[in-house]
Specification:
The chain is about 50% helix and about 15% strand. The protein is an alpha/beta fold. The protein folds into 2 domains: about 200 residues, Alpha-Beta Complex (2-enoyl-CoA Hydratase, Chain A, domain 1), CATH 3.90.226.10; about 45 residues. The strands form 2 sheets. The protein has a 6-stranded mixed beta sheet with strand order 1-2-3-4-6-9, with helices on both faces. The longest helix is centred in the N-terminal third of the chain and has 20 residues.
């Protein structure tokens, strides 16, 4: 099975299982991600974890598939890329935080998927590689946008032009990922992050991730207006009533 979706009650786990090809993208993975994003709208879901089987997060596009597209009209090739981009957009629009748990490494579009997540946990031996140039290709799936936000321009150029692998430790030092774990420890750490999210206010968390995500492109005045509207709504919601009461009563909040 090249991909599967695990429903764990208050969280969903996307398993990329294409182990024979180091987690290369597959139609099954596309389907699983789509189903996960639909289920994430249910109030019981507090987080989505994106991880893999076989010791490698995702090697990106399957070159055996890409070579078959050479003779397609360019418009059809654009449509195939749009299918991929629709998944990136879905991840970014997810109503709950998405956590990447990375073992081995993430390359090409696999790196794009990793960087599209909200919290990134990686094993210390994982490598991050923008490998497109080795195959005479160019980045897609939002990779240049993500790298431009997360790492210095010089490193983004080095990764994209020279396909230089970057260690998890260096990505952590740059603030591009959140946690580095011992080998084989990424999923356990991601589960701990999901536990913390599950204890928090779901609606407020969803609004926070939306505000932070849009802040990279929004004008400051527009972002101030968005924060005003979000705060005015949140202040009248049940989550704020419970959170404020818990703070004043010096107890742990009990959200939902």
């Amino acid at each position: 099975m090249s991909a599967r979706l695990e429903d764990a009650g208050d969280r969903l786990i996307i398993w990329n299982g294409n182990t024979a090809r180091r987690g290369a993208l597959s139609p099954e993975l596309y389907d699983v991600i789509g189903r996960a994003m639909t289920l994430a709208a249910e109030r019981r879901i507090k987080a989505v974890i994106f991880t893999s089987e076989g010791g490698f997060f995702c090697a990106g596009g399957d070159l055996n598939t890409l070579i078959t597209r050479r003779d397609l009209p360019e418009g059809e090739r654009r449509d195939r890329v749009d299918d991929l981009h629709s998944l990136i957009r879905a991840l970014r629009a997810c109503p709950v935080p998405v956590i990447a748990a990375i073992e081995g490494g993430a390359a090409g579009a696999g790196l794009s998927f990793a960087l599209a997540c909200d919290i990134i946990v990686a094993a210390q031996d994982a490598k991050f590689t923008a490998a497109y140039v080795k195959a005479g290709l160019v980045p897609d799936a939002g990779l240049t946008a993500h790298l431009a936000r997360l790492v210095p321009r010089a490193l983004a150029m080095e990764m994209c032009l020279l396909a230089t692998p970057v260690t998890a430790s260096r990505m952590f030092d740059l603030g591009a990922i959140n946690l580095v774990t011992p080998p084989a420890g990424a999923l356990a750490a991601a589960q701990q992050v999901a536990d913390r999210l599950a204890a928090g206010p779901r609606a407020a968390q969803g609004t926070i991730r939306r505000l932070v995500s849009q802040a990279y492109e929004a004008a400051e005045d527009d972002q101030l207006d968005a924060e005003r509207d979000a705060m005015a709504h949140a202040a009248g919601a049940d989550e704020a009533a419970e959170g404020i009461a818990a703070f004043l009563e010096k107890r742990a909040p009990r959200f939902d």
